[in-house]
């Protein structure tokens, strides 16, 4: 048996915005500034790889509360 290749999961702008609790406009700005990589699916549809989205997030260092 061959190895099973796991396909990447792609989400829409709306799904991405919902996941991050921001607007689709914010997602579009992050795509424009290169923070979040995005891909065209057809002429109009934009999709974001879930793995790329997770990598785009930055952890905020803990502060001495």
TrEMBL record:
Taxonomy of origin reads: Bacteria, Bacillati, Actinomycetota, Actinomycetes, Propionibacteriales
Origin superkingdom = Bacteria
InterPro entries cross-referenced by the UniProt entry: DNA-bd_dom_put_sf (IPR009061), HTH_17 (IPR041657), SinI_DNA-bd (IPR010093)
Name the NCBIfam families for this protein: excise
Q: Which residues form the Helix-turn-helix domain?
A: 10-59
Name the chain's protein: Excisionase family DNA binding protein
A Pfam cross-reference name: HTH_17
Q: Which GO terms describe its molecular function?
A: DNA binding
């Amino acid at each position: 048996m061959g190895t099973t290749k796991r396909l990447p999961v792609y989400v829409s702008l709306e799904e991405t915005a919902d996941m991050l609790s921001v607007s689709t406009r914010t997602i579009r700005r992050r795509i424009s500034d290169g923070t979040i990589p995005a891909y065209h699916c057809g002429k109009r549809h934009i999709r974001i790889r879930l793995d790329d989205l997770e990598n785009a997030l930055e952890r905020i260092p803990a502060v001495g509360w």
